[in-house]
Amino acid sequence: MSRWRRRDDVPLTGADCFLRSFDDEVRRFNGAGHLSQLVLRLGPGFDVDAFRALITAVARTTPILHAPIRRRFAVGAPAYRLAHAARTPLPEVTVHEMAPSAATREQGDAGLPAIFRERLNARLAIERGELVRFDVVRYDGGAHGTDLAMTWAHLLFDGAGSELFIRCLDECFHGRRPIADLGRDDGAEATRLGGTFLERVRRAREWQERIIGFGAAPPHSLGGPRRHVAQVLTYDVVTLSRTETASVTQRAAALAGHLTPVLFYFAAAIRAHDAVFSARGEDPGHYLVPLPVNLRPKGADDAVFRTNISLLWFHVARQHVGDFAGLLSELRRQRRAGIRDGMIEKGVAAMDLVRAAPARLHVWLARNNLRGELASFYFAFTNDFLPGMDAFLGAEIVNGFHAPSVMPSPGSSLIMSIRAGRLNVTHIYQRGAVADDERLRLRAQLLDDLRGRTSGAERLRSSG
Amino acid sequence: MTTKDWTQTALVECVVDSVRELLSLGADFSPQSDLVAAGLDSLAVTQLMLAIEDRTGIWVDESRLTPENLRSAETLAACVYEQMAAA
After folding, report:
1. Is the minimum CB–CB distance between B64 and chain A shorter than 8 Å?
2. ipTM
3. Does A446 fall in a domain?
4. The domain containing residue A217 runs over which residues?
5. pLDDT digits over A49-108, tens only?
6. Chain A partners of B50 at a C-beta cutoff of 8 Å?
7. C-alpha pair distances (Å), A414 with each of A109, A211, A267, A380
8. Is B2 inside any structural domain?
9. β-pairing verdict for A146-153 and A132-139
10. Which residue range(s) make up the domain with B38?
11. Are the beta carbons of B46 and A260 separated by less than 8 Å?
12. Residue A399: what are its φ and ψ, rounded to 5°?
């Protein structure tokens, strides 16, 4: 019997509760939900019937996939109510048949089905156990390949967890892992709080004081302050060639370090957003961006479900942004200081401490401390996407990437990962937050910095 | 601190101790063990360099850490020693 079966509830992690708060706000203000999406672009040979049967079998033995998220009592932290999962529908698998895509599917988002973006702008009734759904788009009955999108309430998995889940599904399909095994993941949290309650309160206070400090120079995003507008997100994916990616990763390692290339991509993301502010003739003053930190030990293959991350905040004055090397140096300094000061652990303590608070309180507190806007933009670099996995259920993985939703404020998010030696850059943005020419400018600056060139962005800058 | 205060052998011991403590490893982690295979990742490498800085007073920026430097505790200690000599 799985450990879950012995318990009725699996509590949300502290980070889950923050994300649930985002979901609550997006529902109230923007008519959507806080979701995330993992996209697999597959070659021919994907057996959709086998996939549907697999999802059904896994969901029946893994109740967290469709357990309502509610509080047990009026007080206390919300939880996955596993005992109630028996009465909720299993995750939906919808198949869409399409003519062969004219575009080359190996190139970024060429021909990416519109339904994927529509799903990202929908909402999932998490309180009724609607937590994940799958859309399978078959081209010419699958003979010309299949696109698969897994869209989930962005707390059922984090990015790393969603990849672990896909890997587990494939292992179950090939009989390398018992299907019931997934249900044994009790969410043994990678997050270790440590210390006494009072120590955790002290840590949480220090984290909050740091956040309040950022409020002295609050962030301004491309999307502007929170508004009552419909969430209409779309996303572009740019995929670099293997040769280009090799050059970029070498540059990243040389400038930021072999194991810490994230800051290189992060610096490029900041400068890409700054190019848009420059073109607008606006001065955001400072950039404030939370960098997600995966708390799973390296190589951990458990903690599939729930969000096992903390946040390391970066607060960069615009004066550091003009020079790439100078910006990178500042980011390195802040990362080192943040880790030395225990800000990752303090973030975990702070998010854990307010788990039982009403959903809207988390975002309210953050907005209040930051004087309105939550961040300048969102960013993540998740490194290798499904490393070592060439096929999913027998079909070659042609490409794959993440597309998490971003709230209309800040309205822009850059997510990067490397699939089989090719860098994918996914820019997710809210309609109206970034105009078409601004989107191109942002992309040009980003690619120039990644490649170590100045031509494209400078050209746009001089023409802007 | 300078190279007068540290020998390469002592630095290797310092790195091994720091890695064992950081990654909760036992005696099977040796000076020749592969650091990345032992669990060193982007967060742990910075924590390790901070631990080494605490013990030696020398900070080696992550950007200086190549795959060759990170091959083992021995190679990493050599990198720290080099930085110490240059300080």
Report:
1. yes
2. 0.91
3. yes
4. 197-378+414-463
5. 999 999 999 999 999 999 999 988 777 889 999 999 999 999 999 999 998 765 555 555
6. 336, 339-340
7. 15, 22, 12, 7
8. no
9. antiparallel
10. 8-86
11. yes
12. -160, 170
CB contact under 8 A, A258 and B42: no
Task: Please tell me the distance from the alpha carbon of residue A90 to that of residue A53, in angstroms, as a whole number.
Answer: 11
Give me the number of domains chain A comprises.
Answer: 2
Q: Which two tokens stand for residue A290?
A: 């939370």
pLDDT single digits (tens) B4-61 = 678 889 999 999 999 999 998 999 999 999 999 999 999 999 999 999 999 999 999 8
Say if B34 is an interface residue toward chain A (CB within 8 Å). no
Chain B neighbors of A340, CB-CB under 8 A? 50
Task: Inform me whether the C-beta atom of residue B63 falls under 8 Å from chain A C-beta atoms.
Answer: yes
Q: What is the CATH classification number for the domain harbouring B18?
A: 1.10.1200.10
Other beta carbons within 10 angstroms of residue A92's beta carbon come to: 14
Task: Give the residue among A444, A387, A375 at the shortest CA–CA distance from A417.
Answer: A387
Q: Are residues A63 and A174 in the same domain?
A: yes
